[in-house]
Amino acid sequence: MHGAAIHRAGEKANSYITSCPRFHFGYRLSRLLTLAHGRTYPAGVGKREIQRRLHVAWRLPVSIISGIVAFGILANVANDTPFAKATETSPPGPSATVHTGTASQFLRTIIGVGVKGNLKPGKKPYAPGTRVEFSFTPVIGYSAAMVVLDGKLVRSTGTIDMSADHWLWAFGNPEKGTTFKDVMTVPSDVTKIPYPEFYQKRPSFTFKVADPYCALTSKVIAYPSSYLGAFPMPPINGAPLPPGILRGVALRDYWGGGGWLNNPSLNNECTGSMYTAFIESLKRFKKLGADHVIMYQTAIMEDVNAAELRFLAKDMWISDTDLAWIAAQARAAGLKLHEYICIGTDAKHQPLPQNPSPEWAAKFFDAWTKFIVGRAVVAQRNGIEAITLDWSAYYLDLTSMNSLYVSKMTELARRVRRVFSGKTIVGTAYTPSDASSLLKNIDWVCKGIFYGISSEENSQLSVSVVKKRTQEIIGWAAASLGADAPPMVWGLAPGSYRNYLLGGWLEDAFCVPSPDDCSQRKVRTDFSVQAITYEAALEAIAEQTLLKTASVEAFGYWYTDVIRPKDSFPNLSFSFRNKPAESIVYEWFKR
After folding, report:
1. Which among 494, 558, 561, 573 is positioned nearest to 222, based on CA atoms?
2. Which of 109, 22, 99, 110 lies closest to 68 in space, CA to CA?
3. How many other C-beta atoms are found inside a 10 Å radius of the C-beta of residue 43?
4. Neighbours of 537 (CB within 10 A)
5. What is the rounded CA–CA span in Å between residue 520 and residue 24?
6. Distant-in-sequence, close-in-space partners of 322: CB < 8 Å, separation ≥ 6
7. Which pLDDT score, from 0 to 100, does residue 128 have?
8. Which of 174, 459, 528, 580 is deepest in the core (most CB within 10 A)?
9. In sequence order, what are the residues at sequence separation of 6 or more whose Cβ sits closer than 8 angstroms to the Cβ of residue 129?
10. Measuring CA to CA, which residue among 577, 589, 500, 504 is closest to residue 542?
11. Per-residue pLDDT at 257
C-alpha cells in the first residue's frame, strides 16, 4: 500500500510524505495484533508473517494524508457477491445485421480464448457500407461462443454493416467453473482494448470463471458490470508523457514470508508461486510502456528502547537472495529496478516514537545512516537504478528538528554516493525547508499525489475537479522545494471504490476487523473513480512547468489476474490491473 502526504489549502509548506505500503492504525493494527497473539490465522498466512506485518503497522496520523479518515467510506453499499451462483442463459437476440451511423470503415476484432471463427484479430479497414459476416463456435472445454459487438451481447453469428467503426469481442464460456451472473468480460491484454469505447456500454450476462480466486493469469477477465461505477470513463487528452520522463509501476507490498510466496492471490486455500506471478507481471509492465519496476523493502529496528539503536540487516520482507533474483528478472525483461524502504515497529512489536527527544532522534538517524549505506552496497551489487534514502510508513514529527534532519540526511547522501552510482531519492518521509545542502546531494524528490475533496465535488466528479486539486498539490510542492529543486518522482495510487477521493485508507489484503465482520464487503467498487483520477493527475503532471519531472510511478499493482473479492480485495485496491485505468496508463506511458 502506497501513501503520501499532500498539503491542503492553508496548511504549512512542509509536509510529511509516506510513499510506502500503508497500514491503517486502528483496524489493521488491531487485526494484526489479534492474529499475531491469537489462535487463528488466515490460511496461508503464518504467525511469523503476521509479526512481520506488525513492523509496518504503526499509526498513520491524520496530518500525513489530507482528509484521511478511518474507513469513512464504509457507508457505501456492497455490490459484489463472490460466491453467487446462477443458471447459465443463452446469448440474447437474433443473428441479425447491425446498422449504425455513417462514414467510417474500421472493424477492430478481439479474440479471447475458447472460440474459433472466420475473423482474425486486429483492426481492419472496410469501404463504407460493406457487410462483414462473422461466425464463432466454441472449442473443446467451452460450452458456448460469446460475442459482444459495440458493447452489446449478440448471437455468435451475424452480419455487420460497415457504415461506421465497430469493435467485436469474441470469447468462450467455459464448461467448468464458478458461475456468475450480471457480469461483463474484458481481455487481460490491455493493448487489445479500444478505450474508452469498450466501456461506454455495459453488457451484462451469465458467465463461468474457471478459477476466480486463485488463478495467476487469465486471458479473459470477468467482473460485475456494476464495477464500472457511477461515471463515464474519461477520454484521454494530451497523452503520452514526454519521452524523457521515466515510467514506473510498483507492485503490491506483500512479497515476503508467511505463505504468501506460495499464495500471491492472498485468498485462503489458494496456491501459486510469487516468483511466477512476478515474471508474468513484468511482461505486463513492458506492454504498458514502463521502464522500471518498484519493490518495497522493510527496515526493522531491533529495540526502540536500546541505548544504541540498530536496524536489523537480515530480517526483511525481501531477502538479499530474492532481491538479487528480482533484479536479474527485471533486467532480463528490459526493466530497471527501484527500491523503496519502509519502517514500522521494532522487532518486539513496540512502536517507534512519533515525537521523540532530540537525543533519540539523533540516535535514530545514526542507525538509519548505517542501515541505508549497507542497503546501498547491496543495491550497487544488484544493479538497482534508484533507492530511497529516507523511509515511509513511520511518522516521525520533525517540524522542530528540521536542521537535524537536513544535516543527518545530507551526510547520509554523501556517504551513499561513495558506494552507490545510481539515483538517490528523498521525500518519502519528510519534505524539509531550508534544505539546499541536502537537495544538492540527491538526485530526485518523491511526491505522492493523494486527495481529500469535498462531498459536493465528489458527487459531481470529473477530470476537471480532480485535475484542479492535483495542480494545487503540485503548486504546494513547488512552494516548499523551490524552483531549483531536483527533478520530481510523482507517485499515483488512486483507489477503485466510490468514495476514494473523500480521503481515507482502505485495506485490500485481508478483511478488517475480522473475517466474520468484513468491512470491505460494505464498500462499493467503482472503477470510474480510479480512471478519472489517473487521467486528471497525468494531465496535470504533463502540463505543469513549476518543477522538473524525472518519473511518473503508478503504485499498488496486483500480482495476479484475480479481480473478484474473497479473502483479499483487488476490486477495491489501488491496483489498476485489468481495470479501465490500465488503458489510461497504457496510453500515457507510450513513447
Report:
1. 561
2. 22
3. 12
4. 29
5. 13
6. 255
7. 93
8. 580
9. 161, 162, 163
10. 589
11. 57
Question: Reduced to 3 states, what is the DSSP secondary structure of residue 25?
Answer: helix
Q: Which set of grid coordinates corresponds to residue 272? A: 501459486
Cα gap 170→135, rounded to integer Å: 10
d(CA 397, CA 180) in angstroms, rounded, equals: 49
Are the beta carbons of 117 and 128 closer than 8 angstroms? no
| CB distance 68 to 60 below 8 Å | yes
Residues forming beta bridges with residue 557, ordered by sequence position: 251
Which three cell numbers, joined as nine digits, stand for 266? Answer: 492472498
Intervals of the chain under pLDDT 50: 1-102
Phi, psi of 474 (to 5 degrees): -65, -40
Residue appearing with cell numbers 536496524: 311
Amino acid at 534: Y
What DSSP designation does 390 have?
S
Instruction: Give the Cα separation of 314 and 299 in Å (integer).
Output: 9
Q: Does the global pTM surpass 0.90?
A: no
Of the candidates 304, 262, 131, 500, the one whose C-alpha atom is nearest the C-alpha of residue 312 is 304
**Rounded to an integer, what distance in angstroms lies between the CA atom of residue 53 and that of residue 466?**
33
CA dihedral 299, 279, 491, 14 (to 10 degrees): 10
Q: How far apart are the first and last CA of the chain?
A: 28
Determine the pLDDT at residue 529. 98
d(CA 67, CA 458): 13
Residue 206 has a pLDDT of: 98
- Cis, peptide link before residue 513, omega less than 30° from 0: yes
Return d(Cα 370, Cα 362) in angstroms, integer: 13
Percent of the chain as helix, strand, coil, to the nearest 5: 30, 25, 50
Q: Find the length of the chain.
A: 591
Can you give the pLDDT at residue 177? 97
Rounded CA-CA distance 452/67 in Å is 5
DSSP string for 134-152: EEEEE-TTEEEEEEEETTE
**What's the grid cell of residue 509?**
489484503
* Model confidence pLDDT, tens digit, residues 228-254: 999 999 999 999 999 999 999 999 988
- Residue linked to cell 486486429: 122
Give me the amino acid identity at 350: Q
Q: How many CB atoms lie within 10 A of CB 388?
A: 29
The DSSP annotation for 173-229 comes to EESSSEEEEEEEEEES-GGG--TTGGGSS---EEEEESSTTT-S--SEEEEEGGGG-
Amino acid at 257: G
pLDDT at 259: 67
DSSP class of residue 65 equals: S
Cα angle, residue 274 at apex, residues 273 and 278 outer, rounded to 5°: 120
For 551, which DSSP code? E
User: For residue 264, with 0-12 CB atoms within 10 Å meaning exposed, 13-18 middle and 19 or more buried, which class applies?
Assistant: buried
**Neighbour-count burial for 215-233, b at 16+ CB within 10 Å, e otherwise:** bbebebbbbbebbbbebeb
* Cβ-contact 534, 461 below 8 angstroms: no
Q: How far apart are CA 213 and CA 248, in angstroms?
A: 27
**Cis peptide upstream of residue 196 (ω within 30 degrees of 0):** yes
